[in-house]
């Protein structure tokens, strides 16, 4: 599609009519504006709404960034050229135009390829990616794209004007073998291979879905997991890929025609249309998100509503009368069966219940706090099935919560079920130590949701009208299935957001030290006594492997944690629910969290036992054992500074004694060993709790989840603290290491193959008794010469098999 290596037209004759240039300018300008606005909107939504910030959506963000850059850099020069009816820029601008359009185009198609692969491993292999995986993949995408687009800058092909002379690209028409080889490999690496990978991935995805439809035994687990949420997401990405290829294939075909010598049939008109169609791909992707992703639609609506509410407030700008109750500006559906929805969210350290999404909650802070303005000494009268109770006017909870606070005065405020980010914290006063099913907390949530909805609708708190805590919010559900569902979601979120990232941080730091210390040879120790040499790097590699196995153990326990009890209701039969309810709940939770939650295949087991959390706690107990060993080793190796082993120099973080000046202690090692001890204790409690599933219900639920979450958070936080304040600053005391190694009697082990065990033992015992060196003793006993000792006793040769 190229005409010349120059950057200006060689003739005053225009390639198109004035009207055509105006039409082209209008078209490319519209594409640029739509692409800019739509992709900026995607960036705003991603940054503003936490629910959109998932590892998968990070790829959508990456594509929006590349499309946004095309809208800015890839459209501007072409638009001006359309207005001026010729290319008016210099050669450097032409190179930049060709480079930037190629770079951002390759980034887009490679991002779509990675998205197809992500769907493939998720649907076919049931594996979930994390942010580390996503960031690494995005880095590779940009490096790969830069490699291809940077090649013409280094002389492998070049950037030049296209035949329509409104933009630049690589030189498709060049017959130079060097340039032709680039074109061939460029199409192979940036079009055919990515398209082939996408076809392979989606072929397997649709095949897997089709096969699962035929397997009746998997209907309650895999079909919901794949055919519902995963199928919808895969379909959206498939539409994105198809639309992208529809726009870019014509341009690729025309470029190939030019490459293979058919440039005579590629007129300026034939070349400009595919070029503009290809660039239009930057504008429609956000539209696909909004049409096909309910999550994006909801976030967009929330964003627009928030703007509208702020505008209304700025216009209104007057104080409210005392008798006025602020009514939240929302629209409630009046269809039969519609009811306020209960959303359960989880903090990184506890179970959390909130009323609405974070974003809609921000719409009207004043309405949330209106009741709180009432005096804390005033009460309203509410009833439960046992009678009337006084409920503080400034609280959203109701009679059942108040009665529970009267019956379970155990532990105080520190034992409460905390609420995410402290939101509505005062409205959830119940402690962990309550009924073993968590019923009181479930009703606490139901009452808060009910009264919050009543307040939003302008009703009277505590009236249970128009939203009843049992009839509408609880809606025939049971604490027996909702509470264990919350337990599993909370545990999974804590593991993925705190524990595994913390262990990964520690693993990476220890691995760095193992590589740093690989050439430092030291004496080994068994039974706390001298042993044969090893490298300090080898010693640390053992710690690295322990942490690696720790992460694998945690991950291996997660498939059972991903099974949700929701839908089992009271005893596991699903009484009072509708067919498909359990599957829909699991699919929706999976969509919200980005984790592969599924409905439990057997609800009786899910309610009556908590073996999954016992298993997870056991895995964390093993992690605690590993961290205890690692921390103690590092602490002892760093003992001293003059009277201990002193092989490691640990970071000095704070004073260590109130009476001994200058003393510094290994505080991080001590802290993580205490954490390990606490986790071991937590595991005992979880083990006892898990064993108390009597008949159709386990009644240790609050205690179990309290300890599981506590263990996960402690281990995750302690791993990060230990890494940042100790591991990364560890240094090897090579002088001390060399001294201890050279004085060790166990180097005599190297002589076993040459003089036998008995003679080697006599050398060691004699040297120890006389206080002489091994070499001196061996020569004195006449077992070998000085040259033989130096040849056979080399610590660096004792680090592995020969």
TrEMBL record:
Database matches in CDD domains: 7tmA_Encephalopsin, Fumarase_classII
Pfam families on file: 7tm_1, FumaraseC_C, Lyase_1
Pathway recorded for this protein: Carbohydrate metabolism; tricarboxylic acid cycle; (S)-malate from fumarate: step 1/1
GO molecular function, one term: G protein-coupled receptor activity
Residues that span the membrane, as ranges: 20-47, 68-87, 99-117, 137-156, 182-203, 237-262
Gene Ontology biological-process annotations: fumarate metabolic process; malate metabolic process; positive regulation of metabolic process; response to blue light; tricarboxylic acid cycle
InterPro entries, sorted: Fum_hydII, Fumarase/histidase_N, Fumarase_C_C, Fumarate_lyase_CS, Fumarate_lyase_fam, Fumarate_lyase_N, GPCR_Rhodpsn, GPCR_Rhodpsn_7TM
Catalytic activity: (S)-malate = fumarate + H2O
Compartment(s) of residence: Cell membrane; Cytoplasm
Annotated keywords: Cell membrane, Chromophore, Cytoplasm, Disulfide bond, G-protein coupled receptor, Glycoprotein, Lipoprotein, Lyase, Membrane, Palmitate, Photoreceptor protein, Receptor, Sensory transduction, Transducer, Transmembrane, Transmembrane helix
The keyword Secreted appears for this protein: no
NCBIfam families documented for this protein: fumC_II
Subunit and interaction comment: Interacts with MC1R; the interaction results in a decrease in MC1R-mediated cAMP signaling and ultimately a decrease in melanin production in melanocytes.
Function field: Catalyzes the hydration of fumarate to L-malate in the tricarboxylic acid (TCA) cycle to facilitate a transition step in the production of energy in the form of NADH.
Protein name, UniProt field: Fumarate hydratase, mitochondrial
Species for this entry: Acipenser ruthenus (Sterlet sturgeon)
